[in-house]
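Title: [Solved] phosphoglycerate mutase (2,3-diphosphoglycerate-dependent) 3D structure

Original question kept below for reference.
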Amino acid sequence: MTDFAWVGLIRHAESTGNVAREVAESSALHFIDIDERDVDVPLSPEGERQGAALAAHFASLPAGELPDVVVASPCRRALHTAMLALPDHPVALVDERLRDRELGALDLLTRRGLAHRYPEELARKRRLGKFYYRPPGGESWADVALRLRSLLGDLERQHGGKRVLLVAHEVTALLLRYLLEGVPEPELLEHARTTVVPNASLTAWEQVGDGYLLRAAHTTAHLGDLDPLAVGGL
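Solution (posted by the thread starter after getting help):
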């Protein structure tokens, strides 16, 4: 069990990849039209507006509610979100262990594309379940959980007892429930099946006794009238 006063997770603001995925899925295409490497996918104009809303939110908080440490995924969409939300933060870090899940051979495939091109992988995924299924050349959720556990351990040694904010991806928000709250795999996957983590949303936990209590579940109240694009995956 880690020792932080508070842990927050902001899913990156809307990216051009989110928009491209929504277009591909809604149009029943097999492939998502993205030219960049996954790590280089930028924010969309709406994502930049969401970043500005995050900045206004943090600027309105009293000093005691601000994060002591900010750690961002190296993916451009997450790093830019962190820079917009908390510019010039005195303890701002970038760590590759916060990167999005690597999809390997399944990268840029829609659900329809996966079923068409790799039906045997779809069957294997259904048999193993989302948590342990590892696509060819990619990562399972369990793999991502291992690197998140390593990151949290290192952060605890350097910043234990402080308020830590992570800026990363949808899978990060879901897996932190597994790591911080001890949500069992079946419950976690059911939560993932029925819940979307919106872009620029905040999920937060407070340390209570020997554990963590979920205080904010993927909230977007800080975005005001902006309508976050609730699309998973990128």
